[in-house]
Amino acid sequence: MSLKDKISEDMKSALRGGEKARLSTIRMLLAAIQQREVDDRREMTDTEVLQIVEKLIKQRREAAAQFASAGRNELQTKELEEAQLLAGYLPAQISESEILALLDAAVAETGATGMKDMGRLMNALRPKLQGRADMAQVSNLVKARLAG
Questions:
Q1: Which CATH superfamily hosts domain 3-87?
Q2: pLDDT tens digits, 69-118
Q3: Is 4 exposed, middle or buried (0-12, 13-18, 19+ CB in 10 A)?
């Protein structure tokens, strides 16, 4: 069963269970997936669906931060709950020590020595970490490693 099929099944169960907030979030996710499929004129792979999920989580967290700074706590809470629900579709997250081990292997593999090699290093890490780690955190670890 593909990830998209699982999301569709979850939507049906949320509809049957009368879970309005969950249903709304899942519908938003499916709409984003279907829009991308229409734009690209092809079925999305699980990896591409994970990218969409990550993008939506990032948007929710950014919106929550803006609502918090504006003092709109009820909207901040709603955005964070949506991000949490979406995070349930991501695979198990890996620890920072595992990320650092993969980073060390990628540095050895690519021969990265300085900040000019960051793009090449991130491209080597992305397929191994997509959906399993926060790519902003990975980026910060790569910068720290390349800086010194």
A1: Uncharacterised protein YqeY/AIM41, N-terminal domain (1.10.1510.10)
A2: 999 999 999 999 999 999 999 988 899 999 999 999 999 998 888 889 89
A3: buried
